[in-house]
Amino acid sequence: MKKYTYTEKKDTRSGFGAGLHEAGKKNENVVALCADLVGSLKMDAFIKDFPERFTQVGIAEANMIGIAAGMTIGGKIPFTGTFANFSTGRVYDQIRQSVAYSNKNVKICASHAGLTLGEDGATHQILEDIGLMKMLPGMVVINPCDYNQTKAATIAIAEYEGPVYLRFGRPVIPVFTDPDQKFEIGKAWMVNEGTDVTIIATGHMVWKAIEAGEKLAELGIDAEIINIHTIKPLDDEAILKSVKKTGCVVTCEEHNKFGGLGESVARLLTTELPTPQEFVATNDTFGESGTPDQLMSKYGLDAVNIVEAVQKVIGRKKA
Amino acid sequence: MKHTIKELEDIASQIRRDIVRMVHGCQSGHPGGSLGCTDFFTALYFEVLNYKKDFSMDGIGEDLFFLSNGHISPVWYSTLAHAGFFDKSELATFRKLDSRLQGHPTTHEHLPGVRVASGSLGQGMSVAIGAALTKRLNGDNSYVFSLHGDGELQEGQNWEAAMFAPFHKVDHLICTVDYNGQQIDGPTDKVLSLDSLQAKFEAFGWHVINTDGNDMAAIVEGLHYAKTLAGKGKPILNLMSTQMGAGVDYMMGSHKWHGTAPNDEQLATALAQLPETLGDY
């Protein structure tokens, strides 16, 4: 198992804030909008340096999405910022008609996704957003795994023409990816090469998958770990190549098992290479109040859950 | 004036013929609101709107128009065709398979003249504001026009947008409300009263003007006047009274013809009231 270390922990939303600032410096057409959550979305640096390119919309997410769609007409590249719940479910029809169907170059940037939002509870902990967004024709869906990858992804989507959903989170987590990485939309990242099982992880679950990989190595199981940061378009080639070698797969995501990354992988494998698969995801449930660590543990999203799923799926492979 | 009022009325007569023929041709669509807004569209595209013949999505340096109540697509399509955005023969494809003239306007099929999809109601004011904000950032002093149904104002997103535009001094924005008092289930006063739209928008900080949308001279003058109000720190709301079905006697003044197509006999009756002025498609 390849050794991953970290010297600091940071939140992925700060990676977004840094990336937005960088993208703003690189391209004067980058503009930002926020629905009364500037501090939470870490947009301060962008606002300080480009005040005229920032629009405070107030608590009116539907209006924000519509304004963003309109701002693309004339060449701007709008980044909208609010929590994931208010970036998707609350404004689904606005995104569907004014952004996706109209093919507008809007970047919907969504913080506080999933259970790790923590104490605010289930009203704010959306676990359905990947599913909602990946179903929209033409929508790119990205869920990066740490500060550096989120920053790189934010810069990359400014250079991509078309609607994008960028999902990130609230808690501080290890920073373990290359600070100078080139982010390629739709290209999987090989975290660790192995032969016994393919672990496919996205977002906050990538570090958990690395922790699981270390435990599995102690048990004599050689896990291949792939980071799928782009859930749509899915890197079919990387997944199929790995699964051909390992013969079984575990998908890991901080999202409902219905509609998430796991189902995208299952659709691919069912049609191309039927393979035993286990899902580490929430099980058709809402979350609740608690600390991020408590919630990830209670809802089965810890390294130990990945280890158990691997042992189970390897058993199915042999059966 | 680029045209006389008589010339504009003749264009409007042809557009009305197109509308009833298009809706009859596919036996679906929304003639009532389309006919009610025909004079507005004619005035806008043939007299007021400063647009470029070669359509570009970005619309730099030209006035933009957004149709929020997308179901009145027949009047927009016919107007765009007569204004030269595409050949009028294409009007025969309205609502049919493989057409660029979808039931509700879209950008998906790349129809020149359309910059955003509409149909699901209440979204157009936000989009128009966004386009106006980009024009401001680009130092582009041209105008953004939009049209909204009155019933459509029951959608809450409009009021988010209505609150935003004055606060942010979006003052090259001229929104028109088709104030015909009708919606699918009946008169707006019975379905969900809008009460005083003038008082509501003024309370939100808009400059409100009132026009008669079925009097060509009045609507031309009203839209020109609206332009003179731009750049003074307030968005402009044109409260435009119309008759649903205007120009076809049996369709007027009732919600019945909101979304119903005429049969052969009804089509003949309608066409007899609408002189062919520019040639049918």
From TrEMBL, chain A:
SMART domains: Transket_pyr. Residues 10-175 form the Transketolase-like pyrimidine-binding domain. InterPro entries: PDH/Transketolase, THDP-binding, Transketo_C/PFOR_II, Transketolase-like_Pyr-bd, Transketolase_C. The keyword Coiled coil does not apply. Gene3D superfamilies: 3.40.50.920, 3.40.50.970. Keywords: Thiamine pyrophosphate. Pfam families: Transket_pyr (PF02779), Transketolase_C (PF02780). It comes from the Bacteria. Its cofactor is thiamine diphosphate. This is Transketolase family protein. Belongs to the transketolase family.
Automatic annotation (TrEMBL), chain B:
Belongs to the transketolase family. It comes from the Bacteria. Pfam families: Transketolase_N (PF00456). It comes from Pedobacter chinensis. This is Transketolase. Its cofactor is thiamine diphosphate. CDD domains: TPP_TK. Residues 11-270 form the Transketolase N-terminal domain.
